[in-house]
Amino acid sequence: MKAMKRLMTGVAAMAMAASLAACAGGTNAPASNTTADQGIEGTAENPVTLNYWGWQKGTADQVKLFNDSHKNVQIKYTEVKGGADALNGLRNAASAGNAPDLQQGSQDWMVPLLAEKVITDVTSWITPSEKDFRESAFKASEVDGRNFVVPTAQAPQFFVYQAPVYDKLNLSAPKTMDEFVEQGATLAGAGHKITNMAGEDPSTLVNWAWQAGASWYTVDGDAWKINFLDDATMEAAGVTQKLIDEGAISTQTFADYAAVQQMYDKGNTATRHIWTWSTNGMVNNFKESFGNWKAAPIPEFSTGGKANVSPIGGIFVTEQSKSKKAAAEAAVWLATNKESVTLAADPIKGSSSFPVVADSDPFVAQLLPEKLFGANHAEAVKVAKEASKNIVTNWTYGPNYTAMYTEMADGWAKVITKQQKVTDLLEHMQEWTVNDLKKKGINAVDGSK
Amino acid sequence: MSTTNPVAGAAPTDSAPQDDAGVPVVALPAQETSGTSSKDKRRAKRRESLARRGLPVGAGQSKTTQLLVLAGMGLAVIYSAGPIWWLIVASTKGQSDLYASTGFESLWFAEFNLWENLQQIFIYDDGYYLRWMLNSVLYAGVGSFVAMLISLAAGYGLARYEFWGKKAVFGAVVASFLLPSALLTIPLYLQFSSWGLVGTPWAVLIPSFISPFSVYLAKVYIEGAIPPELLEAARIDGAGEVRIFFQVVMRLMTTGAATIFLLAFVGNWNSFFTPLTMLGTAGKENWPLALGLYAWSGKRTLAGETIDGTSMLILGSLLAIIPLAIFMIAMQRFWKTGVTLGAVK
Amino acid sequence: MSQSLRHKSPAAPPRTRSPRITWRTLLAAKGAAFTMPFAIGFVILFILPIIYAVVQSLYAVKSSGLGLSGNQTVFVGLDNFVAAATDLRFWESMGRVAVFACIQVPIKLAVSLLLALGLDYLKGRVVAGLRIGLLVPYMIPGIVGTLVWIYLYSPDIGPLTEFGKFFSLDWNFLSEAMMWPSIGNLLTWDSIGFNMLIIYASLQAISPELFEAARLDGASEARIAFSIKVPFVRAALVLTGMLSIIGLLQIFAEPLLFRSFVPEVVTKDYTPTLMIFNQAFDANNYNYAAALSLIFAAVIATVSYLYYKFTNKPEA
User: What sign does the dihedral A119-A125-A129-A130 (CA atoms) show?
Assistant: First the structure.
């Protein structure tokens, strides 16, 4: 009925739609802060309710924990469709003036949402807790020295492989990417694929470029310097291209998740660069390969060394929130409270998300499913702990990153189906990204020349 | 303009198709053109026609041709209904059988896992499936009912009154058939968004209330079913226009109204673009079935899920057929007598 | 009521003078009032969105500097249209659906017509059964039909790939080359039953005497079908064809679903509507999406006009 009432006022407004249309996209007056924001300490007379949108498993229970332990601030959690849909959902809500106070999201949203004035600066509320966060995660939440997201999860990568396949072919975990490529050829000769690259998902290329030390977006004075063609990216591209050319990869789409998992399970695809949260899906879909999996550090590129790459996941506080301080502090609580973190890290009740707390080691053993690794579990735990300490933060997501990624995904499909080379794609992305930024009125320089 | 009366059970009419100024032929349905509703008469007629065909006149009606045509039609039926057989079989399988039985095996049952699948579908994805089905029924039902009322009124106004702007309204109705839905839906989405309607049931209900196609059908139908003389007579008897509409027009229009409702219902049930735009990024609780199934089909990471998505999607698809099938079978009478109005569709 | 029918008053011929005028005007107003709910809804849901789209297409969202200090909407004149005119992907997607519509619609109509003629030829008891069988796809929600066919096509769990091997055909329905035939088959499957029913109903309206005379003259059944029956249902075919083409040019849900299974084949700009949708909701460029959809609407209107021109030739 409330909606109906809104509609009625809307109908009246519609008469002026044409003239108003011009500014419909632009102005969202920041909600005035009428009541003093007391933070999560709050006051009994002035209880605050925060709206929180997210999608991850276990988040609802984390919220419950929070609500049970806080009197003056309560969180109302709404589950939304995850990923890009959640991003668009937030944008829509923001343009309609009913954004939630808190939004679950990932690091690549940060600069675009900042540019759109959807999210707010949380520096002053998160800084007191800086020591509770792992340094790399805290740094990743910054743009230009200010924090715009409360980190809740990282995704340190490691390498897993089917030990029986490797043993049969007398291979051991690759130390370098060159070795990885060689193994690709060996495995292909024996009827196995070394890894899976889905046509819709260029993340492998992104991660490898990042790992090799590339930075596609860098701030250079008052302009973005764009470079998709530096040496590091080229090395990653070379590796990717070789694997594709040699037919060393499977190309099963993640959309048919069960089919992907079946390939791993059967050893058709024998290795995977993996994050903790993906081990869960393996456990749930596997039938025969339990205990066969071994973990090792990700193979190194000639540059970058042991660098491990991980975007952060986090909670944004919106510009429209009327209780920004309380919202930010609640987010910090959710990200650092021991019980809350345990819940998010739980493989069954939560989503195996890797904590961003200063000392995450105690959580790692339970994060990794014992069933998957069997006797190799202890070693896997060691590998994951190590990986989390090597995370580098030299990667910046530019203001059009999400659109860039969609564009890249389309071209990536053509790379996987061998209609174009990885370098063709990167050259296209170089041009596209510079043009797209300029079209949006953002200063951009071509850093590849 | 002919004043034939296509209302079910009415007196037999001539078989002349109505031809409405430039609007292509709207054929009258077979049942009505072929005689009275009396069973005996129809049988007699059929016997007569069979006898007629038995006569040595028709050189073409040979046994072989008949068998050939029958075989061709049989193949077409297999083509039409076969996929549903696969769906039924597949929904009784567990995930491993689903992937293990390819090719010809996929057309026959393996281990019977339907009950387990059924139990799972009501808890999978937090048990939203049932909710989505109810939403679909609600959106299609309410949306089509309101659209039917609005369309009948508009069609009646257009068919039986003269007023300034009438041509413009009807022209707009026909022209709107040409408009791409993307052109309308995206700006509408932005408007609804600023009114706070996006994500609420209203965002899909309101657009479904206004259906130019239904108005067109209503106009054509009323021109056939409601003789102007009848209205004049009612007026002379002192009935007000509103009373005439509800007591005379609506009564004579039962079949027409049901047909309009039926076609609108099917259209709304199948609707995808509008719900996707209006509800896709909002909470799952307001989704219709189509969106839920779409979400399941694109599910990438089932972090923490212990139920396989593929078999849920397959069973979900099968169950999604049931309400529409029931509805169509229940509405069969109108569907048979009235749906040829859809000839214009 | 039948009573009131009988004393049909002679006092109400149209255009009676003077005292009647006010009564007529009043009646007109009442008639217009019946169309009011629809007309108001139409303005809100059809007219205003178009105006809104036109206005939007003349603006663009611009940022400045590093793009971190918020956006502004500025007037850019026809910039969006100029960009669209040279946007190869948009025209490629348009070409794709145009070619597709030119092939799929005639096939679909031909199959539907043949089925209707077959049904008409058989008559008798078998017709009801056949008709129900052929109408099965119409009872299947669109998205379900698409999903079912995707699974039938799937090499992982569907039977069709294996069938191909049986006839030593190595086909992959989800490959790039097969994508349109695969979607075309799905749409044909989905609509032949319903189209057949419409054509069949038109056939029933033909007076049997027409055939009797032809039969007596010794015309074959095939001859009767093509010289008498087909011309009779031409109007129905033409209109169905037109609405099918308009629908096909806008094809969206099917490619979108295929996209979630084979994203490497069905790209985000595969069809015009898909591209417009992605511009609006993925790239968040509503202004450009508005320009694209206006151009698209113009193209559809042109196509419809041409189609109308070609099919409405006065018959010799």
Answer: positive
The beta-carbon neighbor of C63 closest among A91, A412, A441 is: A441
Contacts 24+ apart (CB under 8 A), A215-220: A215/A394, A215/A395, A215/A396, A216/A398, A216/A433, A217/A396, A217/A397, A217/A398, A217/A401, A218/A396, A218/A447, A219/A144, A219/A396, A219/C66, A220/A445, A220/A447
Interface membership of B314 toward A (CB under 8 Å) = no
C-alpha span between B125 and B307 (Å, rounded): 9
CB of A81 within 8 Å of a chain B CB? The answer is: yes
**pLDDT category of residue A101 using cuts at 50, 70 and 90:** very high
Size of interface A-B (CB pairs under 8 A): 105
Flag whether pLDDT at A100 surpasses 50.
yes
Does the pLDDT at position B56 exceed 60? no
Mean pLDDT to the nearest integer, C54-67: 89
Q: Is B196 on the interface with A (CB under 8 A)?
A: yes
The predicted complex's ipTM stands at 0.84
pLDDT higher at C16 or A190: A190
Contact B301/A281, CB-based, under 8 Å? yes
- Does A20 have pLDDT greater than 70? no
Answer whether residue B105 is part of any domain: yes
Q: Is B278 part of a structural domain of the chain?
A: yes
Domain-by-domain residue ranges, chain C? 12-49, 81-311
Q: Which residues of B touch A345 (CB under 8 A)?
A: none
Domain range holding B269?
125-344
Torsion-angle region of residue A223: left (phi > 0), alpha (psi -120 to 50) or beta?
beta
B186, C286: Cβ pair inside 8 Å?
Answer: yes
What DSSP string describes A69-137?
Answer: H-SSEEEEEEE---THHHHHHHHHHHHTT---SEEEEEGGGHHHHHHTT-B---HHHHGGGGGGB-HHH
Full set of structural domains in chain A with CATH: 48-156+312-397 (3.40.190.10), 164-273+283-309+398-446 (3.40.190.10)
Q: Which of A2-6, A150-154, A348-352, B180-184 has the lowest mean pLDDT?
A: A2-6
- Across the interface, of C66, C260, C282, the residue whose CB is closest to A255 is C260
Dig out the tokens for B213 from the structure. 């196609």
Q: Are residues B103 and B250 in the same domain?
A: no
Read off the pLDDT of residues A324-374 as tens digits, 9 standing for 90 and up: 999 999 999 999 999 999 999 888 888 888 999 999 899 998 888 888 899
- CATH number of the domain where residue B289 is located: 1.10.3720.10
Under a CB-based contact definition with an 8 Å cutoff, are residues B57 and C216 in contact? yes
Residue B306 has pLDDT above 70, yes or no: no
